[in-house]
Amino acid sequence: MIVVLKPGLTAEEIHRVVERIESFGLRAHLSEGKERTIIGAIGDERLLVDQTLESFPGVEKVLPILKPYKLVSREFQKTNTIIEVNNHRIGGKRIHVMAGPCSVESRDQVLEAAIPVKEAGGTFLRGGAFKPRTSPYSFQGLAEEGLGYLAHAREVTGLPVITEVLDPRDLDVVCRYTDILQIGARNMQNFKLLTEVGKLNKPVMLKRGMSATIQEFLLSAEYIAAEGNRKIILCERGIRTYESETRNTLDLSAVPVLKQLSHLPVFVDPSHGTGRWDLVTPMALAGIAAGADGLLIEVHSHPELALSDGPQSLKPNKFAALMREARKVAEAIGREI
Q: Has this prediction a pTM greater than 0.85?
């Protein structure tokens, strides 16, 4: 439930309300807005049977949250969440583009992607040092060596880094190198990983599972938010359907649906969503038109030699062309890249 506080309360008065909520065995999550301060009372609401909070000093009203996900819901927070990363504001007017190779293969390979990404107007460098692969015999990533290559590219280009973490045991080392943690589709319901990431003060991109409903997706985000980390970016990356012409079916309807149901920023990954480089640009443009706050694009200088996902990777010149077209679409809907 949401506990709306009266305006003008002191910090001590707010603390008393928090203590009261916690005395019922619930967790209190404070959200201070420009006009109102609200507290999310999260937990088993049956603990409040025969109890009343509306008569408690400082409380204006108590409202139920009807969705099974609470903290990430639009009911809990009406305004859009803005996540600040290295002077970039994710979730605002500007649409951010995170681009780079699927897998980190070498220092030179990362730079060959990062420099043109920067020159074309990309704002973040993506790259995988730990790779979850369907086959145990496929390239699994360079681990910390690869993280070092990403950090070097950040020094050269100034692009903040986003990279995937697979295992809670790797969090310490990954956090030393990255600016945003990525949780991939296969780990969307890895609840131990979600819980541990939720304890960190580090932005995290959560990708939709290949067979996940939107409710399941938002409940996974709730695992992170419930531990205290509200810096969550949602990413639609395609779902598994019966269609075989594309790698996945990119569910662009999820973008406006997520924006209606949640206050979190929403990105689109047309690379994994289609699995075909020739479809990346049209679906990226469609994602922007649908209201996405950003794109996740795979870029590789020699995709025919890539150790993973070459067929869906754009060459630098194709990425630059995508960025030119994306600016036109962004401007048409009152946003910018």
A: yes
